[in-house]
Amino acid sequence: MSSLVELLEANDKDLTTAEKMEMCSLLLGWSKTEDEAISWFKTEAIPACGGKTPIELCQSKDSKSLLEYVRHIEKGGFS
Question: Residue 79 — pLDDT band, cuts 50, 70, 90?
Fold first, then answer.
């Protein structure tokens, strides 16, 4: 399995490198393992983002919405 950074790099072309590193840092901080973060990235449907998974958001060029969502949750917001 690839790393979370590699997965994000391969599926997102809209975020800056700094934004990708921020997202990876937040997701890894929430997870017990990198494999858990990767699983979330691939499978977790996000209601606030139309039920798309994080990887689907990145592939549909909507990764800015994913980053906003992750930042919102990090600040204590609800999904």
Answer: low
